[in-house]
Amino acid sequence: MRRSIGVVATVVAVAACGGVANAEPVVPAVGSSCPDGVADAFTQLADGKSFLACQGVSASYRWQPVSTPFEPSDRWLSYGPGLTLTGQGRRNPEILSGQWTASPQDPSSTCSAEQAPVTDAGVAPPQTTAGKPGQVLHFEVVPVVFTITLTGNCLWERVN
Questions:
Q1: Average pLDDT for residues 7-20, to the nearest whole number?
Q2: How confident is the model at residue 91 (pLDDT cuts 50, 70, 90)?
Q3: What's 33's DSSP letter?
Q4: CA angle 49-47-148, nearest 5°?
Q5: What is the DSSP letter of 21?
Q6: CA angle, corner 56, sides to 58 and 147, nearest 5?
Q7: CA–CA distance from 53 to each of 31, 77, 103, 111 (Å)?
Q8: What is the rounded average pLDDT of the residues 137-146?
């Protein structure tokens, strides 16, 4: 009987943790610590208007508020809701064109970028590029992107 209770308690504890493969990403908040490997990355809060940057504070990295407009970042962290950023097809771009990679931050995450470029007739329909779960996505942000939405628990980096 004692052994059965121990097994049930272990199963309940593992189920309560949600498992490692399906772990929910930590939502960035002002002053909270940044995940490993995202130093100097920016992110956008769920309100779609507020931005944070992972900056060194004392001996650690913390999410700090960023005033707009700001210089475009070459590193972005998406964590759940899509980050909708302005590109070089608008004033004060938040992301620059060029070659980019998106690295999933957990093995089950899929990185996806939806770009809406500017054309002579206005803004073209969005074009989506998506990776596979747990795999790095390589893609190009077009020079005249109006907006781009980055989704998945992913670190996005511009390749210089």
A1: 37
A2: confident
A3: B
A4: 60
A5: T
A6: 155
A7: 10, 9, 18, 20
A8: 94
Domain ranges (residues) in the chain: 28-158
pTM value surpassing 0.90: no
Q: Is the pLDDT of residue 1 over 70?
A: no
Q: Which helix (H) or strand (E) holds 12?
A: helix 2-17
Joined together, the tokens standing for residue 156 give 């996005």
> Residue 112 is encoded by which pair of tokens?
């996806």
Structure-token match 């809701």, residue found? 81
Beta bridge pairs of residue 60:
57
Beta strands in 8-158 (DSSP E): 42-44, 51-57, 60-66, 75-78, 83-86, 98-104, 112-119, 122-123, 127-130, 137-141, 145-151, 154-158
